[in-house]
Specification:
Layout (H helix, E strand, L loop, with lengths): L5 E5 L6 H14 L4 E5 L5 H11 L8 H25 L3 E5 L2 H7 L8 H12 L6 E6 L2 H12 L11 H17 L4 E5 L4 H10 L7
Parallel strand pairs: 1-3, 1-4, 2-3, 4-5
Helix pairs in contact: 1-8, 2-3, 3-5, 4-7
Bound molecules: adenosine-5'-diphosphate and magnesium ion.
Length: 209
């Protein structure tokens, strides 16, 4: 049996990741694939407990290094209990955020280097990388408006950081697409949702055989 495919959706809050994760899964299931939609931090009971720790409370609750280690711990659990077993069964996994979110967020202002974040990933998750990553690219002002409309103005511990922080995150994501063009594709997220999904399916054509 061939191994399944692992797709991650990345981008800032409000860029359409959750919308596209579900729509893409539907489009792949129509094509006959068994698909799991999951998310980070979280995806398994233990990792969802870590998610609650990470996303609730005040921004000062965790030092940035503690935060990075907690993300890596949640991901380790997610890889071991959900993602690797599903891929081994030949099934597809779509994760709403994965390692590139850690790289984009925990490196802002030089808090951690990319090497340090990847070291945590090596220890925790044996370096599992997606077969393809889509960065949903939207100007930060548009994305934050969409997120605010969805959440009626509330935000979680990380979403509540200022606009400079979120612009730096978005710039980091764009850099990844530049550095790793085969794995990481930048997607125009200002389009209507259905057209974005069609674009994603087209960009997975080579992974479907
Ligand atoms: N292509 C799109 N155009 C306009 N609005 C969108 C689009 N995709 C998603 N939305 C809306 O924007 C908000 C944020 O989308 P969501 O999928 O929750 O983003 P994320 O998971 O990246 O935070 C939701 O209210 C969603 O319905
Ligand atoms: Mg979401």
């Amino acid at each position: 049996m061939t191994r399944g495919r692992f797709i991650s959706l990345e981008g800032g809050e409000g860029t359409g990741k959750s919308t596209q994760a579900k729509a893409l899964a539907d489009a792949l299931e129509i094509r006959g694939f068994k698909v799991h939609v999951t998310r980070e931090p979280g995806g398994t009971p233990g990792a969802e407990t870590i998610r609650d720790l990470l996303l609730s409370g005040s921004d000062e609750k965790w030092d940035m290094r503690t935060e990075a280690v907690l993300f890596a711990a949640a991901r380790a659990e997610h890889c071991a209990k959900l993602i690797r077993p599903a891929l081994a069964r030949g099934e597809w996994v779509i994760s709403d955020r994965f390692i590139d979110s850690s790289r984009a967020y925990q490196s802002v202002n030089g808090e951690l280097s990319d090497d340090e974040i990847m070291d945590l990933h090596r220890v925790g998750s044996n370096n599992l990388m997606p077969d393809r990553t889509f960065i949903l690219d939207l100007p930060e002002a548009v994305a934050s408006k969409r997120a605010a409309a969805r959440d009626r103005g509330t935000s979680d511990r990380i979403g509540g950081r200022d606009s400079d922080y979120h612009q730096a995150v978005m710039a980091n994501f764009r850099q990844f697409a530049n550095d790793e063009p085969e794995r990481v594709h930048l997607i125009d997220a200002s389009d209507v949702a259905e057209r974005i999904t069609e674009n994603l399916v087209t960009k997975l054509g080579d992974l479907m055989s």
